[in-house]
Amino acid sequence: MARKIVNRRELREQADAAAERGEAKPKKVAAKEKAPRKSRAKKKTGEVRLKAFWGVFNQSLKRVALYEYSDRKQAEKKAAELNASGKSPHFIKPVKEAIEVVEEA
Predict the structure, then answer these.
(1) pLDDT tens digits, 13-26
(2) How far apart are the two ends of the chain, measured CA to CA in Å?
(3) Which of 12, 29, 54, 105 has its CA 20 to 30 A from that of 36?
(4) Rounded to an integer, what distance in angstroms lies between the CA atom of residue 40 and that of residue 34?
(5) In 3D, which of 69, 97, 65 has the Cα closest to residue 82?
(6) Residue 72: pLDDT above 90?
């Protein structure tokens, strides 16, 4: 859409000419007040917390055993036992699992 370009000098001259003729300036229309915006806060679905464990896994990433994070030596010992038994190699890696949080009233 084409728009006529008017510079500020021309607008000023038009306003001065209107003032000399005695024409009143057009009043600006007051803007309507907007309604307050509704809150979009997310609903709480409950708190999900993660806890770290050591998992003993086989070669195909199937978890064989799970130990507390502080019991790493036991997890390594279990992986060594499974490796010595001649089956596929086993290893440990950290695992994070969701735990339920009990809310107190």
Answers:
(1) 888 888 888 766 66
(2) 63
(3) 29
(4) 17
(5) 65
(6) yes
